[in-house]
Amino acid sequence: MEISSKENIHFFSNNTILPMDRSSFKSESSASKEKQSCCGGIKIFLGALSFVYFAKALSGSYLKSTITQIERRFDIPSSLVGVIDGSFEIGNLLIIILVSYFGAKLHRPRIIGAGCLIMSAGTFLIAMPQFFMGRYRYERFPSTINSTVSISPCLQDKSQTPFSALEKSHAKINAGCEKEAGSSMWIYVLLGNLLRGIGETPIQPLGITYIDDYAIEENAALYIGCVQTVAIIGPIFGFLLGSLCAKLYVDIGFVDLDSIMITHKDAQWVGAWWLGYLIAGAISVLAGIPFWFLPKHLPKPESRKDSSTSSEQSKFITEDNKEQHKSYQQVKIAEMAKGKSPEFFPSLLNFLPSLKNLLGNPVYILYLCASIIQFNSLIGMVTYKPKYIEQQYGQTSSKTNFVIGLINIPAVAFGIFSGGLIMKKFRINVLGAAKLSLGSSFFGYLLLLSLFAMGCENSEVAGLTVSYHGTKWTTDYEQALFSECNSGCLCSENDWDPICGENGVTYISACLAGCQASSGSGKNTVFFNCSCVGPLESPSRRSSAVVGSCQKGNECPKMFLYFLVVSVITSYTLSVGGTPGYILLLRCIKPHLKSFALGIYTLAIRVLAGIPAPVYFGVAIDTTCLKWGSKRCGGRGACRLYNSSALRYVYLGLTLVLGMVSIFFSVAVLWVLRKRSSPQDETLSANGERDTCGTKSRKDNFVNSDHLIQTTYWPEKETRL
Questions:
Q1: What is residue 620's predicted lDDT score, i.e. its pLDDT?
Q2: Which of 126, 145, 197, 388 has the fewest CB atoms within 10 Å around its CB?
Q3: Domain spanning 39-138+183-300 has what CATH number?
Q4: Neighbouring residues of 230: CB distance < 8 A, sequence distance ≥ 6
Q5: In what order do the strands lie in the sheet with 517-519?
Q6: Where's the Kazal-like domain (predicted)?
Q7: Nearest to 572 by CA among 402, 431, 417
Q8: What pLDDT, in 10s, does the model give residues 407-420?
Q9: Across the chain, what does the average pLDDT equal?
């Protein structure tokens, strides 16, 4: 009987287990298929979003690479170029709140696609002035232009110049004045960049939150790191494209290139800046096409179906939040009864309470302040880095853009990707992410400090940085342009047509060098009997000079190499903290406010960093100018020569001071996190779950204090915002 009963028990138990195994197998099979479908959909979106990030980064970096070209082409100072650069952020400012707050309720992929079309239209508009303004005219003395008339550079008597030559010269200047007086074509560049900023607005807040909604939680950091890494590839191609276009003459296809008397090494050279914008606009159009065919929603990962919050945030849900969810459901049903779509809840009335709730998060506010100041530092540094390299180390625009695109930008890409990989591999919690972000900023700015010792001396320009006798001085620049050696010449102090004397000193013009004769034409012109070029001990000896500025000192190429090495290491170090900072931002806010929080974050960066930084950096850089150009109709044009030492201290000093201030706020973020966290929260739990913002786990801390996160139970998070 006992054996029989045991056999019966075993029989029934087997019969009972078999159906459970089949059910479990079916459940696992369906879950596997759903997981594959989810992963496939999110990866397609990831690829499309990465290409859009590439397109917008390419056009944005190409604008940075053409800063000096635009400055020379439109004859405007650096401060005005900074306003043009900041117009992109103004475009973001116009609609960022609406897009980030209401965009999550609509079809996010299609909104991104529409933004790409607007962005491409703005990029095309930037290039339009080239087709409507006259040909570029650079300053050249008549003797350097192909002509059968021989004119002495040092006009000791006006009668030496044929009347017909003077008449033609004045006629051309007057015609140019009439043309320039009726147009300020740089405004079209500003408006195009403004439009480009409007189109770029939905890409970041809607794209990143779409990934965070539908990606498996442990893969979210890696996916965001991948998107940002691909976005850095865009600037590589953007600067390389800028390098290529800088070698091509601005009016290529419109003029005979054999008649151009300057080379790309000349300070007055302007490359084909407009050509790259046509290419970037076409790429933006292609990038927006896939988003018109992507779905509004993707299947949620299995790990997120049972909870609308992440594993980090779900443990902080309180009873108060559940009551809020009940209220939400009741209002939602009432909205449906009235025939209104629940997609548009909460209404505009919820905007201010949401904003108040968001700004009441101390970690979010402190991190926002740190980011604003740091982006002021980085945006100003990146915007004027090409100009700094050109003026400090005497490099051409083409070589400068090539070096930045091929060496500097890959270091940034590798740094961002490394940050995401470190977060995933070591499963770093939010407190660890704050430490990693702080550490990368501290060591990055520490390396930046060493660049102060890697500068070049000022170029030796007679009357500006050295006297005509070869001694270094000058306090009164304008009066120093004239000396005894050129007192018999009729020269203008406003001209900028530099020549290089055989003594290694640059002279502003052949006239100011006291040159009496010339031979050859165009690029091959050689000036003779230059009274100011002769050595002091032998004033009777007359020396020669050639067209163009002299090269900087022998130590400058070596310093440029050191600068590149330190700059690459600094770029990598600063970029490592990018992805951890993003994760810190996403995990320290309510899940249903994620899109809104990213929108406010982006808005603050645009308004308080993106717009003012290029302007006040440009104003500060303008104060270091030694020689301003003159417009054809009068007035100050673009700067022709900078004080290298002053430029180094202003550019690097402003960057470093802002960076150090941002580090203090980052320390405050870490202090708040550690103060609000318990020892258990600082380590990973046994099942691999991470803590959020180091908030204490005890329930009463959430109910009775101003805690960091008040995670509301919100079905489907931002998709039901």
A1: 95
A2: 145
A3: 1.20.1250.20
A4: 50, 51, 53, 54
A5: 506-507, 499-501, 543-547, 526-530, 517-519
A6: 479-534
A7: 417
A8: 888 898 888 889 98
A9: 75
Question: What integer pLDDT is reported at residue 33 of this predicted model?
Answer: 47
Q: Is 313 exposed, middle or buried (CB count within 10 Å of its CB: 0-12, 13-18, 19+)?
A: buried
| 699/232 Cα distance (integer angstroms) | 43
Cβ of 610: how many Cβ atoms within 10 Å?
A: 25
In the chain, the amino acid numbered 548 is G
Q: Determine the Cα–Cα distance for residues 76 and 72; give it in Å rounded to an integer.
A: 7
Q: Is the dihedral of CA 654, 656, 661, 665 positive or negative?
A: positive
**CATH number 1.20.1250.20 is the correct assignment for the domain at 350-457+555-677:** yes
The two three-digit tokens of residue 345, written as one number:
């809840």
Using DSSP's 3-state secondary structure scheme, residue 362 falls into helix
Give the strand pairing for 517-519 and 543-547.
unpaired
What are the backbone angles phi and psi of residue 333, rounded to the nearest 5°? -65, -40
Mean pLDDT, residues 687-708 taken together: 38
Q: Does 39-138+183-300 match 350-457+555-677 in CATH topology?
A: yes
* Cα dist from 148 to 142, 158, 258, 472, 544, whole Å: 11, 19, 17, 40, 22
Tokens 């700015």 correspond to what residue?
445
Q: Specify the long-range contacts of residues 36-41, CB closer than 8 Å, at least 24 apart.
A: 37/299, 38/214, 38/298, 38/299, 38/300, 38/301, 39/216, 41/214, 41/295, 41/298, 41/299
For the chain, give the number of residues.
721
Output the six-digit token pair for 451.
């660049």
The 3-state secondary structure of 65-110 reads HCHHHHHHHCCCCHHHHHHHHHHHHHHHHHHHHHHHHHHHHCCHHH
List the structure tokens of 159: 């009668």
What's the rounded Cα separation, in Å, for the pair 451 and 564? 10
